[in-house]
Write a structure and sequence with these properties.
Strand order of the largest sheet: 2-3-1-4-5-6-11-12-9
Number of strands: 15
Shape: globular
Number of helices: 13
Structural class: alpha/beta
């Protein structure tokens, strides 16, 4: 197929996976759910109110599909086992843990397991939250409490505070924000694209927040990487933060990390055909042309900044990154860089396929 016209197809960006204790074996393996009704019909009450409210909030805010994975218990080991099973589900882009704080002592280890899972797979984000009764000064300490390394932090977000919502059964309830925020991500992706920061967005179905923050209280939370939900006069609860937990400038913003996840996964999955081709100049030219066409279209849609495509991205797949020894080893490498924030500031990524037969 080298030399023929190849197309890169964009992957999905907003399929969530909810990982939580669930009684019975209905969700022992990841199960795809297309609506709240479908989840409810499969015994939503067996997962407890936190899981049910999170899934409900996801669909209420624009989510279109999710996976539900039941853990065999509450401890870190149970979560690690469930996350391991989830590695094989390529459609997942967001990982939500509705019952993260059921045991405060176990929460840091569970959060780190989720962050490590997302960093390992490389195409999804851990969407976490603080504990229910946390003050603003408590919430600032949460990122450090998780003890993430730089890679894990770049694939992790934290939201604060919790929401007051009309309970599924009628009575008002206090729920974690993560399920609702996952739905906001999905809605923003559908309306504007994954490159648009999912902030200044209404949280549907929320009556109010458990904590009303001031600008002064939000500032240190921002610096710590904790994304706040805010209420302003005349508006209901809003998502008002768009940061990962990364201290590195290039991965600090959620929309940048998610955009690069999308681009990398789209290119990787659409170029697997290269594994069966001869590693020569013709193959390099075909790959380079396909990826250039894909990135140019992303630039035209506004996902990349720059007055021209040359300012917005670059693609390298030639002798400079495919020396003779890589041919012998049966490897072909494609490097690309994009400018998601400002022209000339490139975030780099590498796609490598094994062409050995």
């Amino acid at each position: 197929m080298a030399g023929a016209v190849q197309m890169i197809t964009g992957v999905g960006t907003a399929t969530a996976a909810f990982v939580a204790p669930f009684q019975g074996g209905a969700f022992a393996q990841p199960r795809r759910v297309g609506s709240w009704r479908e989840f409810a019909e499969q015994g939503a009450e067996a997962g407890g109110a936190n899981l049910a409210e999170a899934v409900y909030g996801f669909f209420a805010n624009g989510g279109r599909a999710c996976f539900v994975v039941g853990t065999a218990g509450d401890g870190p080991g149970a979560y690690t086992a469930a996350l391991s099973v989830l590695e094989g589900v390529s459609d997942v882009n967001i990982v939500v843990l509705p019952d993260l704080w059921r045991s405060e002592a176990d929460a840091p280890a569970i959060a780190k397991a989720a962050a490590g899972h997302c960093a390992l797979v490389g195409n999804r984000m851990a969407l976490l939250h603080t504990k229910q009764d946390a003050s603003a000064s408590d919430a600032v300490k949460v990122p450090a409490l998780f003890g993430l390394d730089e890679d894990e932090a770049a694939f992790t977000t934290v939201y604060y505070p919790w929401l007051r919502v009309p309970g599924i059964g009628g009575a008002e309830r206090v729920v974690a924000p993560s399920g609702h925020v996952a739905g906001v991500w999905a809605r923003t992706d559908a309306e504007r694209g994954v490159h648009k920061a999912p902030a200044n967005q209404a949280v549907q179905g929320a009556i109010e927040l458990t904590v009303t923050l001031t600008d002064g209280e939000q500032a240190p939370l921002n610096e710590a990487g904790v994304n706040c939900l805010r209420v302003f006069p005349g508006r209901g609860p809003l998502v008002w933060g768009t940061r990962t937990l990364s201290p590195r400038g290039e991965w600090r913003y959620l929309n940048v990390r998610r955009l690069v996840n999308f681009l990398t996964e789209s290119i990787r999955t659409s170029t697997t055909w290269a594994r069966f081709e001869t590693n020569d100049e013709r193959l390099q030219t075909t790959l380079r042309a396909a990826v250039t066409s894909f990135l140019r279209e992303q630039w035209r849609q506004g996902a990349l900044l720059g007055r021209t495509p040359d300012e917005a991205f670059y693609v390298t797949c030639d002798q400079s990154n495919n020396p003779p020894q890589s041919h012998t080893a049966g490897k072909i490498t494609l490097d690309f860089g994009v400018a998601p924030v400002r022209p000339g500031e490139f975030i780099t990524a590498t796609i490598e396929h094994d062409t050995a037969q």
